[in-house]
Amino acid sequence: MLVLILGLVIFLGVHSVSIVAPGWRTATVARLGERPWKGLYSLASAAGLALIVVGYGLARRDPVVLYAPPAALRHLDLVPERRGMASSLQAFVGSSANGLVAGLIAPLVMHSAIALAATSLAMMSVGVIAWLVVKPHMRPAAALTLAQPNA
Questions:
Q1: What is the mean pLDDT for each group of 10 consecutive residues in the chain (151 residues)?
Q2: Which of 98, 123, 125, 140 has the smallest count of CB within 10 Å of its CB?
Q3: Cα distance between residue 11 and residue 9, in whole Å
Q4: Handedness of CA 73, 78, 83, 87 (dihedral sign)
């Protein structure tokens, strides 16, 4: 991944010189001459591009997961014809819970940092306990298959 990032920095850096430092570019072209500048520019661009290609190949061997979609997205595809309803229900439940916390619980504990921290710990504990209770009853991810459209 480091080789890929280095290649991107070199390649994009070389191509951004006229945007970021036009005065330095003009002075360097005047000092070196146009042909040597274009040669160095091309050499640096080619080196950056080569590092991008090699770095991409190396990064594919050992990928880094930068983003994992929420589990709810995987479940929405189980019943595609009801995707909108399920998404709306999920948004309603989440918004209702946030409104309840913001409107009822937060004002009760805002007077003290200790009360706020204790309430946060209590809510996190409820979440952990709920997860521990539900997790044994969940099917493994491999058992969740996408619904096939009716033929």
A1: 93 93 92 93 95 92 78 75 84 90 88 92 92 79 51 47
A2: 140
A3: 6
A4: negative
Tokens of 43: 């050499």
The one-letter amino acid at 49: L
Is the pTM for the entire model greater than 0.90? no
Query: Residue 7 has which token pair?
Result: 């290649």
CA distance 62 to 25: 38
Please check whether residue 41 lies inside any domain of the structure. yes
- Looking at residue 131, its pLDDT comes to 87
**The pLDDT value given to residue 145:** 52
Side-chain half-sphere CA neighbours of 61 within 13 A = 7
Residue 147 Cα distances to 24, 27, 68, 82, angstroms: 59, 63, 21, 11
Domain with 12, as residue range(s), is 2-61
